[in-house]
Amino acid sequence: MTGPLLSVRGLNAFYGETQVLQGLDFEVADGGVTALLGANGAGKTSTLRALSGMIRATGDIFFSGLSICGRATEEVARLGIAHVPEGRGTFSRMTVDENLQLGAMTRGDRAGIAADMERLYGFFPKLGQRRRQQAGTLSGGEQQMLAIARALMLRPRLMLLDEPSFGLAPMIIAEVFDILRKLNAEDGMSMLLVEQNATAALELADQAYLLETGNLVMGGAARDIGRDENVRRAYLGY
Amino acid sequence: MKHQSASDVPAAVMPDGLTSKRRRLLLSAAAIAIAVILPFVAKNFLIFQLTLAMVYAIAILGLNLLTGFNGQFSLGHSAFFGIGAYTAAILMDQGGVAYYWTLPAAGIACMISGFLFGLPALRLEGIYLALATFSLAVAMPQLLKSSPLEPWTGGVQGITIIKPDAPFGLPLNPDQWLFLFTLAVLIALFCGAANLINSRTGRAIMAIRDNPIAARSMGIDIALYKSLTFGVSALYTGIAGALGAIVIQFVAPDSFTFVLSIGLFVGLVIGGVGSIAGTLFGGMFVLFVPNIAEAVSKGLAGAVYGVILILVIYLMPSGAAGLVRLIGSKIARRTR
Amino acid sequence: MELFLHQVLAGLATGGIYACMALAIVMIYQAIDSLNFAQGEMAMFSTFIAWQLMQWGLPYWVAFFATIVISFAAGVAIDRIVFRPLRNASLFSHIVVFIALFAILNSLAGFIWDFSIKSFPSPFGTQSLFGSGLMSTHDAGMIFVTLIVLVLLFVFFRYTRVGLAMRATASNPESARLVGIRVGWMVALGWGMAAAIGAVAGMLIAPVVFLEPNMMLSILLYGFAAAVVGGLNSPLGAVVGGFAVGVIENLAGTFIPYVGRELKLTIALTLIVAVLTLKPSGLFGRAIVNRV
Predict the structure, then answer these.
(1) Which residue out of C167, C178, C286, C288 would a mutagenesis test of the A interface target, given it has the greatest number of A Cβ atoms within 10 Å?
(2) From start to end of chain B, where are the E strands?
(3) Helices B278-296, B258-271: inter-axial angle, 10-degree rounding
(4) ipTM entry
C-alpha cells in the first residue's frame, strides 16, 4: 500500500466569514492512528467537520487518492469515512438496535449487516443488553460505545473520532480507548483521533499533531510529541 | 428608524459603540422629522393608511416582544388586538370615555388577559404553543359574536365610534391629528421597548429564549418572566388595537380573525424577528402589500400575495432588518 | 343516553375526517420536523384535480389513483423547488412560505374552478350503514380507508429501511448525513407522501363537506389539534386524536347549553389545550428524554 490513506494539504476552513483553520498539513497512514491534540477552541472539531464537508473548506483533501474537499457530508460517508461526531450524534429517539441499523444504511448486504450487528453486540456487551432501549437514555459511556459501534456498521476504511473521552469517567475512558486499540491492532482500522485528553490519545496514536488556534504547531511520531518539554508542561501536566 | 437596540444585532457583528449610536440617533431624528411633516403634504387617504401602518407596527412590536425576544410562539395576537379594540370601542360608545383614556384601559385589559393566558401557556412550547395561541385567535370572533356578550359587543353588527377632532382647536383635520397622535404613541412605545430590551429584564427575557436551562440555573424565574412578557406583549398589541379602532371608527368580530394573527406574524418575519425598527417595515407590508396584490389581479389576489411573500423571503430571509444589517456590514467592510 | 350514543357515533364519523387529515400532518411532521400550514390547501387542490379528471371522463378509481400519483409528484416538486433555497433559513421564514403556499393554492383553486360548491362522488355510497341511521356507508368507508393508510404507514416506518432513514432524518439530520443518508431526498420523499395522504384525505372528505376552495380550513385546524393531541410523532396517535376530536366537538356542540353550538370550535380547541397542559407531548407521543 503506497501513500497515506488520508492526505491533507493546506486545509482552510470557515464558519461563515470567520476563518478557523489556516493551511493545515497532516496525514493518516493506512492502518495507522493519527491524533490531533489541542486545547479548547484550537480547531480540532472544525478539522473533522471540514473533512466531512460539514463546514466550508478549501485545500487538498485526498482519501485513498480521491479528492474529497467540498463533497457533501453524506457522500463523504458513502466513500467509507465514518465520523463519530462531537456529542456522539446519537439518534436519541431511536432504539440502540435502530441506531446500529442506521449505521449500515448505505450497505445492501442484509446478511452481512445482521452478522455485523451480532458481532458488535458481542464486542460491546453493555449495548447488547440494551437493544430495545431508547438511545437517548443511555449513559455517556454507553452512548460513546454506541457511536463507535454505529460507525463500525459502515465498514469504514477510516474513522474520524471527535473527543471520544469527552465527559466520561476515567475508567470508562480506559475502556473506550482499549476498544479503539483493539480495532486498530486486530482489524487494522485507520483512525484520525481528535482529543483534549492528550495522555490517552498519545498512548493510542502513532502520529500526533498539535493544533493551536487553527494552526498546526507541531507534528511527528506520537512518542516524540509526548516527550516534548512544552507539550508535557502544557498538555500532559508534568 | 426608531431606536434599534444593540442586542438586535447578531453576536458576531457588533459595531463600535459611540459612532453607531450617534448614527442611529441621527437617523431616528431624521425619520421623525419626515414623519411629522408628512400629514401636511400627503393626501388624506394616504395619511389614513400610514396611520394604520403605524398601528400594525405597534401590534407587531407586541408580537416581537413575545416571539422575537422571548421565543414564545404566538399565532393568537389578533385576540389581544381585538380585546384592545373592543375595550376602546365599548368605553367610547357606551361609557363616553375620551379616546386617549381608552389606550391605557385597553393596555391594562390586555396586560391582564395576556398574563392570564401566559400562565397555562407556560407548559407549552413551540408548535404546541402555536396551536394553543391559534385556538385563542379562532375563539375570539366566536366569543365576540356570542349571545351572552352581545349587549356589550353589539354582536355581529359591531360598534361604530366617532373619530375625534384635534384638541385645543388646532388647525388639523381628524386624519392629520390621528396620524400625529399615533406617531407620538408609537415613539413612546418604541422607546419603552428599546429600554426594556436593553435592561437587565430584557436580557433575562432573551436568555430564556436562547437557553432556558442556563437561564434557570442563573436564577431567572422563568415562569414569572415568561408570563410577564406575555402580558407586556399583549399590552402593546392591545394598545395598537385601541388605536386601530379609533382610526377605523368601527369594530366588528370578523375584523379580528386568525387571518389578522397570521398577517401580524408575516409582518414580524418580513420586518425582521427580534428587530424593533423592523416592525415599521412589517406594518407597512401588512397594510400595503395585500392591496398591491389585489391591484395586480383581482381574481388571483391571494396567489399574487403568496408569490410576493415567497420572493421577499428569498431576498430577505432575515427580514428587512437582516437586509439592512447585511448591507451595513458590507459597507463597513468596504470603508475599513 | 341514546342521544349521547348517537352523538358519539356521529362524532366518530366526523372524527374519521380529522383522523385522515391528521395522518397527513403527522407524515409531514416526521419529514420536516414542522407543521405545514398549507397541508389542507394541498389536499383541497388535489381533490379538485381528481374532480377535473372525472369531469374529463375518467372513472372514479382511475382518477383516485392518478390523483395520488400526481399529488406525490407535486409534493416532491414543491419541496425541491420552493423550499430548497430556504434550507438554511430560520423556522420563521419557513412558516411564512407555508402561509404563502396556502394563499397561492387557495386563490388558484378559486380562480380555476370558482367558489361554487360542487359535489364529489363517494365510492362507498351514502346510504345509512346497515339502515341504522347512525352512520353512513361513506363514513364507515372513510374510517376503513384511514385505518388502512395508518397500517401502511406503520409498516413503512417500523419495518422498512427507507422508513427508518426518514425517521432518522427527522430526528437528527446531521447524524443522518454522517451515516450516508441523502437527507435532501428523504425530505422530498416525506413531502410527496404527505401530499399523497392529503389527497386521499381530501377525496374522502369532499363527499361529506362538498368541494369548494375553503372546504379544508376548519378541518385542517381540527387535524392539527388531533395530531398534536395524539402526539406528533405517532400516526396511531393522530388517528385516535382525530376520533377523539370528532367526538369532543360533537358532544360539546350538543350538550353544553346554549353556547355549545356557537362555540363548538372554541370548546374543542380549549379541551385540546387542556390535554396538552396535562400531557405536553400528546397522548401517544413519546416523551423525549434528553440527558442534559
Answers:
(1) C178
(2) 159-160, 250-251
(3) 120
(4) 0.90
